[in-house]
Amino acid sequence: MTAAVEIVGVGKRFGDAVALHHIDLSVREREFLSLLGPSGCGKSTLLRIAAGFETPSSGTVLINGEDVTRVPPHRRPTNIVFQRGALFPHMNVFDNIAYSLRLKRWPKERIVARVADMLALVRLPDYGTRGAHELSGGQAQRVALARALAAEPRVLLLDEPFSALDQKLREEMQLELRQIQRTLGATFVFVTHDQTEALVMSDRIAVMDHGRIVQLGSPRDIYMRPATVFASSFIGQTNLLRGSVAGIGEGRASVTTAGGATLHGVPSSAIAIRAPVILSLRPEAVRIVPRVAGVSGAIEATVREVVYLGASTRVGAEIAGGDIVWADLRDAEAAGLETGSEVALSWTPEAAIIWEEEAP
């Protein structure tokens, strides 16, 4: 099957600064793929290269098998939605959506029908006569999305379109956008620095750092089996604990921290005894019980923080040497825990990933 978008060996320099290092990426047809990473990692630059607003310093961009590396944006089968909808303020909603269709010289009847379809799709069926200035932030982003989809692009590119919205509205728009993508069966490439957004909406996520893709996979794969320490720390909450390898066997390893605590996990690759390592452990994988329970293999700890989060309670427990291990517990599990409680921590070794620590 021909990929919807292929990025082949794409690099980008701005003077002496390298924004992208030889990126290879294939986006499948009808896929929702997110480019995820911190500010300055190159994700928006990569999206703008796909859209034609930036020219790569090296490499090739193909859309549906056609080389579009030097093709201007208006001649590519793509459209883009920016951080702010950037609607034409002097036009009403209908004219904003119809603008590109008129440029393409669509018949009037077809334009009217298409605009009506797009307004229904974004759940604003009666807003055609509204002025752009009369819209709320969420409504304006819906109209911007309808305008981008109206011309039937093969690929829709979205550059952090929800970044200016409040949290509740962002969550609503995330689910709506995913439903729209599924309804249309279109290819979406979405840029975000919000890991929750990427996890909620994506078929696959490309995690970017310093102009490179450090991991590409499904949300579950990236969350459960991150390929690097960076991916582990950027996707969701995690405990990162440093130590040295004390023992290896049967696909598992034990790690001794500087404070003398012994932790267990699974190495991500071959490691050696006494090698300096980092262990990553998700808070939801940690169990906490009263120390008197005497759980075999558990780690003694003292509760230092108890934070109520509504759906869960986050507990910070100090182990030997002063490291804090965070655990996310259900209310029943957290009952009776308070600052100063003497407890024991445990987790299955498979829940913790161990990486050899790179030299600075």
Describe the structure.
The chain has 360 residues and is α+β, with helices and mostly antiparallel strands. The chain has nine helices and 20 strands. The chain has helices spanning 43-51, 93-103, 108-121, 137-150, 167-184, 195-201, 219-224, 229-234, 331-334; strands at 5-14, 17-27, 32-36, 58-63, 66-67, 78-81, 155-159, 187-192, 204-209, 212-217, 239-249, 252-257, 262-267, 276-281, 287-290, 299-308, 313-318, 324-329, 342-346, 352-356. A hairpin with a 2-residue loop joins strand 11 (239-249) and strand 12. The longest helix is centred in the middle third of the chain and has 18 residues, at 167-184. The protein is elongated and about 75 Å long. 36% of the residues are buried. The mean pLDDT is 91.
Describe this structure in a few short sentences:
The protein contains 9 helices and 20 strands. By secondary structure, the chain is of the alpha+beta class.
Q: Which regions contain 5 or more consecutive residues with pLDDT less than 50?
A: none
What is the beta-strand fraction? 35-45%
Rounded Rg = 25 Å
Note the gap between the termini. 43 Å
| Helix percent band | 10-25%
Order of adjacent strands in the largest pleated sheet: 6-7-8-3-9-10
Tally of individual helices:
9
The major beta sheet can be summarized as: 6 strands, mixed
In total, the number of strands is 20
Describe the global form. elongated
List the helices and strands and how they pair.
Elements: E1 5-14, E2 17-27, E3 32-36, H1 43-51, E4 58-63, E5 66-67, E6 78-81, H2 93-103, H3 108-121, H4 137-150, E7 155-159, H5 167-184, E8 187-192, H6 195-201, E9 204-209, E10 212-217, H7 219-224, H8 229-234, E11 239-249, E12 252-257, E13 262-267, E14 276-281, E15 287-290, E16 299-308, E17 313-318, E18 324-329, H9 331-334, E19 342-346, E20 352-356
Parallel strand pairs: 3-8, 3-9, 6-7, 7-8, 13-20
Antiparallel strand pairs: 1-2, 1-4, 4-5, 9-10, 11-12, 11-14, 12-13, 14-20, 15-19, 16-17, 16-19, 17-18
